[in-house]
Design a protein that fits this description.
The protein has helices spanning 31-42, 73-81, 92-105, 142-148, 153-169, 208-221, 230-244, 250-260, 267-276; strands spanning 14-18, 21-25, 51-55, 63-69, 113-120, 126-134, 139-141, 173-174, 182-185, 193-194, 200-201. It has 282 residues and is of the alpha+beta class.
Length: 282
């Protein structure tokens, strides 16, 4: 998909316009789906909340919708023009639209992008972006699974590893892969699915060992540490690496891994690891 929003409707030719919102879809909408989307558009913003993220209010539609507010004039103007940030990337909500579409086209285990769109302000600037995907029926996110059953930690870890390397085989590196972004099949019959791909890469990294170090360290720091000791987690990581990435540079991996396990690394700094192998403070 082109990063220029003016080109996207060519792949999503069916349009819903309601109030100041325009939504584009690959296929025509059923009337019940259209009504639910109009209700979503009409929902008042929650003070202090930038994002609405929930299944669409229509069980028959089986869709999941996100509505993200652009919180600065600079972002609104940039998205309006289809322009990138100074580092060549796009604003996070735009990246999620592009990356979800691209990953699904590659056959990666991600939800299908069904539609997308935007709301304009009275002055004509884009102020909200919409991402609409197929609902993952019968799936729960890994964090919810852990909260309900802490003994399931190895199930969540094994699913995370399977997903991480499945994405790698498709040439995709997910730099925000934590338990909450790993969707597990409730029946345990289906493969895990990744969500929230806004901070992802679709080209190989020259610093694959450092990038893997971040991914495994980040997975531990984001909630997993509550359910397993660090020593047991380290042992599990050693087994995972021997099975899936025995050729890595262990010293480079450990340097970033040990840091990422204990220190929060911002989204832009994660990109530096992928691009340069370096992270501030490490």
């Amino acid at each position: 998909m082109s990063p220029d929003p003016s080109a996207w409707p060519k792949e999503y030719p069916f349009t819903l316009k309601h109030r100041r919102t325009t939504l584009h879809f690959q296929a025509p909408l059923a009337e019940h789906t259209r009504a639910a989307l109009e209700r979503l558009v009409e929902r008042a913003r929650v003070p202090g909340a930038k994002r609405i993220s929930a299944p669409l209010d229509c069980e028959r539609s089986q869709l999941f919708a996100k509505r993200e507010q652009l919180d600065s004039l600079k972002k609104k103007w940039r998205v309006q023009r289809g322009a990138a940030r100074s580092d060549g990337t796009y604003d996070w909500a735009v990246e999620e639209i592009i990356n979800t579409h691209k990953a699904y086209q590659r056959g990666a285990p991600v939800p299908e992008l069904v539609g997308f769109g935007y709301t304009r302000s009275r002055l004509g600037l884009v102020q909200d972006l919409f991402v609409i995907t197929r609902l993952l029926q019968g799936y729960s996110d890994g964090l919810s699974v852990l909260q309900q059953d802490p003994s399931s930690v190895y199930r969540v870890l094994d699913a995370s590893t399977e997903l991480m390397f499945s994405l790698h085989k498709q040439g995709i590196t997910h730099m925000d892969l934590w338990a909450g972004n790993v969707m597990l099949c409730d029946s345990q019959a289906g493969a895990p699915v990744a969500i929230d791909l806004e901070n992802s890469f679709f080209v190989p990294s020259a610093f694959a060992s450092e990038t893997l170090g971040f991914q495994f360290g980040f997975l531990y720091l984001r909630e997993i540490y509550r359910y397993i000791t660090e020593a047991k987690y380290d042992a599990w990581v050693d087994i995972a690496l021997s099975n899936f990435a025995p050729e890595i540079d262990k010293a480079a991996f450990r340097r970033v891994y040990e840091y990422a396990k204990h220190e929060h690394i911002g989204r832009l700094d994660r990109r530096e690891i992928f691009l340069t192998g370096q992270v501030a403070g490490c």
